[in-house]
Amino acid sequence: MSRKRKPMPSAAIRATVDTLNHDGRGVARIDGKATFIEGALPGEEVDFILVARHKRYDEGRVSDVLRAAPERVAPHCAHFGLCGGCSLQHLRADAQIAMKQQILLNDLHYIGDVTPEDILPPLTGPHWGYRRRARLGAKFVEKKQAMLVGFREKRSAYLADLSRCEVLHPRVGQNLQALRELLRGLDGYQRIPQVEVAAGDQAIGLVFRHLDPLSEHDLAALRAFGEQRDFYIYLQAAGPDSVLPLWPENPRLSYRLPEFDVELEFRPTDFTQVNGDINGAMVKRALELLDLRGDERVLDLFCGLGNFTLPIARRAAWVTGVDGDAQLVARARDNARRNGIENAEFHAADLDDVASMWPWAARGFDKILLDPPRTGALEVVRRIAKLGAARIVYVSCNPATFARDAAELVHQHGYRLRQAGVMDMFPHTTHVECIALFERG
């Protein structure tokens, strides 16, 4: 006999919020049970509506803020609360970065049993219009008779009905309506599920994913949109390898790291950092932590198209960059050649394969930098620890896996966690990016 679920109360419940969880929801305890409340901040007294019950926790949504936290601000975006792209716009910017720093320190303590000797000052930049990369969904909704372009609704698979986006590069974020109108006017408007945004310093590329071949009318309309609004237009018929330029014939996307006299070219579907300002500051800090004197051999793991490798080459005797994506490695080699850099080599290798050989490591390295994906690099850390480098700089987009890997370096291989700090790569989101320095005993 199945149990009947207890109906959720329709009346508002009053609570005092204790803290924020990792996804930016306020945490309160109701009759001893944790409740995650959308839109609530620590220290606030709120009324909320219960929206879901679970065995170990409940979920709610604020209906009224009775006593606001001093850190609460009015959200800048009209779509806040509906769109899932941002969840912290109601929290003051300095409080956002303080929250992220506390998440990093908590993960290091509770997951890694590690404490940094020094906390680096956070790297911060512009809070609006910062986003250079995005994958926007596109869909014609029959019930609304409207073409939607943008991000998903919060905790939903449905696209949010957006007219603009405040965190996207302004030339894209303030032109979502024009993009919606363009797509609605195409013959294939129901067969274009995605538009990818890739912005360089001087140009912005839009990649239109199309499930069927496009008509001549559609090709002409896309080309005209690019010419009139100064966007590079690319078409994608299948996977990333199928991306081809439509207009202009030979588009060129790039960004500069002027402090190191480096310019990196990239293709619109290549991995590049979302936030150009923070990326520049991050590269500068990484090289400061490496403390290069000009005579070192440096290893850069998960090097991508050379974002750290080429600046390192300007300050070190030799640098070896390694990545699992052979196409990015080829792009890194091209970037080194275009910048006249001859003291860098690049290799494609599956760094997660514990059985793979590392012939490029045989000559040894004085210092190491790694910037792994969200899953971290536990097996890589175990291997590089044996190389005996004096310094390791670790860049992470996931403080939990970073804390796990930090524990390995500190407790198993005798490194000290000298410094660690956060970088605000994604303002108004709960995404935490960090950088740290490890030194030998």
Which keywords apply here?
441 residues, alpha/beta, eight-stranded mixed beta sheet, six-stranded mixed beta sheet, 22 strands, 23% helix
What does this structure look like?
- The chain is α/β, with parallel strands linked by helices and 441 residues long.
- It has helices at 93-110, 170-173, 176-184, 216-229, 276-290, 309-315, 326-338, 378-385, 399-413, and strands at 13-16, 19-20, 26-30, 33-38, 45-53, 57-67, 118-119, 133-141, 146-150, 194-199, 204-209, 232-236, 244-247, 253-257, 262-266, 297-301, 318-323, 344-348, 367-370, 391-396, 415-423, 433-440.
- The strands form 4 sheets. It has an 8-stranded mixed beta sheet, sandwiched between helices. Strands 1-5-6-4-3-2 form a 6-stranded mixed beta sheet, with no helix packed on it. The protein has a 6-stranded mixed beta sheet with strand order 9-8-10-11-12-13, with helices on one face.
- The chain is globular.
DSSP summary: helix tally: 9
Bin the strand percentage.
25-35%
- As residue ranges, the low-confidence spans are none
Task: Supply the helix-strand structural class.
Answer: alpha/beta
Overall pLDDT:
95
Give the number of DSSP strands.
Answer: 22
Radius of gyration: 24 Å
How many angstroms does the end-to-end distance come to? 62 Å
State the major sheet.
Answer: 8 strands, mixed
Shape: globular
Helicity range of the residues? 10-25%
Give the strand order, joined by hyphens, for the main sheet. Answer: 7-21-22-20-19-16-17-18
